[in-house]
Amino acid sequence: MATPSTMIIRALQMLGEKRLGGTLSSDEQTAYLSVLNAMMETWSIERLMCYQIVENTKALTTGTPTYTIGSGGAIDTTRPTKIVDPCFVRDTDSYDSPVEIIGMVAYGRLGLKSSGNTYPSQIAYDAAYSSGLGTIYLYPEPSAGLTLHINSWKQLTQFAAIGETLALPPGYQRAIESN
User: Fold this and answer.
1) If 0-12 CB within 10 Å is exposed, 13-18 middle and 19+ buried, where does residue 93 land?
2) Spatial distance between the Cα atoms of 37 and 158, rounded to a whole number of angstroms
3) Which one-letter DSSP state was computed for residue 83?
4) DSSP 8-state symbol, 34
5) Greatest Cα pair distance in the chain
6) What is the pLDDT of residues 81-106, one digit of tens each?
7) Which residues partner with 66 through β-bridges?
8) Which pTM does this prediction carry?
């Protein structure tokens, strides 16, 4: 198991800096941890760097077409970077109906948002960072008790402390250290 500190020291050694004893000053710890977290944030928007797609579910409320998503939102999870296929709604008989992902422009062009259909057929995601939440828009709005299933890229974890013990997927430690 690695820590941010050991990965930073290894990265510095790869750059040719000698670190006898493998220690960083307090100022170095703060500066390098900030750089490391900035890199992790940047990697979060690249599919190649996101090592998993996570499925989340939400029991839909009749007549409610929008839901916030993120820590403390209606869908309380890490705010997704992107929502990806497959998405679907499941009814009480466990029948799944696909939901097409559309962009916000296409969603905005939809005329009557409440068409009376029971099952939403389209979903749009506004990943705008408003209070740490994104917003999911369903079309048409649900008129029956359904459960929404979405798949999404999650942001890679930023490191809270320089000595935090990390459990990284295979290859990630080496990729972090060499970048």
Assistant:
1) exposed
2) 5
3) E
4) H
5) 70
6) 889 999 999 999 999 999 999 999 99
7) 137
8) 0.73
